[in-house]
Structure prediction request, 254 residues.
Amino acid sequence: MVTAPDKARPDQAPPQDDLLWARSLHYSHGGTPGLIGVSAGVRQGEILAVTGPRGCGKSTLLRCLAGQLLPEQGEVWFNSVPVHTLGTAARERLRRDRFAWIGPDPQLLPELKVWENAALPLLIGGVPHRAARRAALEWLERLDLDRFAGKRPGALNRAEAQRVALARALVAEPAVLFADEPTAPLHRAERALLLRTLTTAARSHGITVLLATHDEEAAAGADRALALLDGRPAGAAAASALTTEDQAACSLSA
Ligand SMILES: Nc1ncnc2c1ncn2[C@@H]1O[C@H](COP(=O)(O)OP(=O)(O)OP(=O)(O)O)[C@@H](O)[C@H]1O
Prediction:
């Protein structure tokens, strides 16, 4: 059951300099723990890598921060707005207007041209066709995809398709880009190119990035990293394992 978190008390207000901030998030997927007391903060324009092995809770954390999942406990604040207390319509507006998402699968619409795929967030948001097309073409050019603009996604290889997904994520110039294992389906050289493209584009446009990855090389391009293990901050998980071992040692020596 999703319970409404307590309202933040004045002494617990989020730090002024964090654009997106979360405290002590708990979330379980139908009984499977996803997050157990994870806190995170990211400043405007910063690139934060969320790292850790498969199943450690990276996607769950990104989805809670992006307002896709409501934490069972804890708080999420974006730009001093308490996302965890917003109603569904306001959260959807926030997600549409300020956030963007790219995952491991580009999920392009095969019946649309490449530029139309890239322009989709603008077209859905009611931006006039001509302006949406111009913005999409600019992003396709920046990401070295302009030659594909009039083609269908079927003409692209995996790396090109993923760069179109990146253009689509950036076309509305979101405040925050959530990138959930965006390089997972790519080869090493393609991964490096996509990450370079993503970080360069984000930095030049002041876009804050949360990058979930189990790939240490991918995390190296970030400003900071938050490591998770078994749904907890890695340090806390290690400490709780230590505590358990200490307890076992104590009971053995008793
Ligand atoms: N829809 C779901 N239903 C049930 N359990 C889930 C669901 N989504 C995630 N989980 C579980 O929650 C835990 C955290 O999963 P999550 O996807 O957040 O981890 P992750 O670090 O992103 O892993 P990956 O790199 O494989 O995507 C895992 O134990 C996972 O099996």
